[in-house]
Specification:
The protein contains nine helices and two strands, in the order H-H-H-H-H-E-E-H-H-H-H. It is mainly alpha-helical and 288 residues long. Strand 1 and strand 2 form a beta hairpin. Helix 3 packs across helix 5 and helix 6 packs across helix 8. The protein is globular, with a radius of gyration of 38 Å.
């Protein structure tokens, strides 16, 4: 492909050079013909008209060269057009192959992420019996994230598998596992940026939210009870809701509209808000 692409500018340059050479050749022939014709006129004035034959011969030779030049130019143009068409075809094939490899690599990445929590016989048990299995899955996701492999293709694959698991209805373990993958992804991405400090000042409500973002979903209840002023802490529910709303707005600005990443991050923050409201209701005695 590289050699073929490189050949295109070469063909263009060759064509331009050929046209210039042909132009110079035509000018030279016209100049020679003019000289012979002038000399013929001069000789005719002296009574010797034999030189006129040289002028007509020069004209025939010039015409023949023009025909050859035109034919060669058309051949070069046809060759150039064919080269461009082949170049475009190869680009289309390479783009198509790249998309296929993208889908395959996203599937392979997901398999690697889930491998620590899937038994050798292919059975899925959730939560994993081995606590280290979940740690290994989180470690694999961080590694893949550093390599730039947790992209839109990966998120699309996870969502497709999750949607299929929900439709089947007989794989609750797989559904919970895929939900966990999305939670870990959102936690890792949102934790990369902190808003808990303004100069030397520590913003307690922002820090509290970031504690929830980094924590696994199973720890949210305890963190909320210990942190909210209705429980053991000093953060009001209104302050928590306000910083969650602000973080959602920042996420919408910093992510591509309609992307899987945007949807997953926003849903994760909304999940924290929903859990906080549930805990508030329980602490207020409005729920059993």
């Amino acid at each position: 492909m590289a050699s073929l692409s490189a050949a295109v500018p070469h063909l263009v340059n060759s064509q331009l050079g050929f046209d210039r050479s042909a132009d110079l050749l035509r000018r030279n022939e016209n100049f020679r013909c003019s000289r012979v014709q002038i000399h013929g006129n001069f000789s005719g004035a002296r009574g010797t008209s034999g030189r006129w034959t040289d002028g007509s011969l020069c004209s025939r030779q010039s015409t023949k060269r023009k025909v050859l030049t035109c034919a060669t130019s058309k051949d070069a143009e046809k060759s150039f057009q064919k080269t461009v068409e082949v170049d475009r075809l190869i680009d289309m094939l390479r783009e198509s192959t790249s998309k296929e490899e993208k889908i395959e690599s996203s599937t392979d990445v997901l398999k690697s992420v889930l491998k620590p929590v899937i038994h050798g016989d292919g059975e899925i048990a959730w939560p994993p019996q081995d606590p280290m299995a979940l740690v290994s899955m989180e470690r694999e996701m961080k590694l893949r994230d550093q390599e730039g492999q947790l992209d839109e293709g990966f998120l699309s694959e996870v969502n497709a598998q999750l949607r299929q698991a929900k439709e089947d209805g007989d794989k609750p373990g797989l559904e919970a596992m895929l939900q966990k993958v999305l939670q870990i992804y959102a936690s890792n991405v949102l934790s990369k940026r902190t808003y808990a400090k303004r100069g030397n000042e520590v913003l307690e409500d922002e820090r509290f939210l970031e504690t929830l973002i980094r924590a696994p979903e199973t720890s949210w209840n305890k963190i909320l009870i210990d942190g909210l002023n209705m429980g053991k802490g000093n953060i009001s529910p209104e302050d928590l809701y306000a910083v969650i709303k602000k973080r959602i707005e920042r996420t919408l600005i910093r992510t591509e509209g309609g992307s899987y990443q945007q949807r997953i991050l926003v849903e994760y923050l909304q999940g924290i808000e929903l859990r906080a409201k549930e805990i508030v209701e329980i602490l207020q005695g409005n729920r059993p």
